[in-house]
Amino acid sequence: MVQRGRVICRLRFGGLYGAKKNFIIARFIRHSMSFTNTEDAKNMRSDVNIEGEIVNKGETRTVNKRSGGTIDVCDAYLKDDRGEIKLTLWAEDINLVKNGDRVKITKGYTNTFKGEVSLGKGKFGQIEVINS
Q1: Which domain covers residue 15, as residue numbers?
Q2: What is each CA distance from 18 to 6, 14, 27, 126, in whole angstroms?
Q3: Do you know which InterPro entries this protein is assigned to (predicted)?
Q4: How far is CA 104 from the centre of its chain?
């Protein structure tokens, strides 16, 4: 049984040991990860797995960090068949995507700022361009 990418009970594989067993477990976990849509993502807080198309990517701006220094940030919108959600891109992720790219975000999180829900990759999340 798998829950949000973590094994929560033992899996039995008979005589399999070592790398082969680990490969099968990793593949099982990867394929059991469920993806949500934009409307459901707006009601989630963390562990958001979603796919969609980048639309309306804005201009990059520089903001001050709480710890001192500055960082680049850019807002875009992630669109799927149910709607769209604001996507906040930070630092190196800004140049990774462009308008029209189809992306997959895993382990993302949502945040509400000035009354608008936005999706972010976060420290432990990943963003992957599926096709451009």
Answers
A1: 1-33
A2: 19, 12, 14, 27
A3: NA-bd_OB-fold, OB_Ssb-like
A4: 6
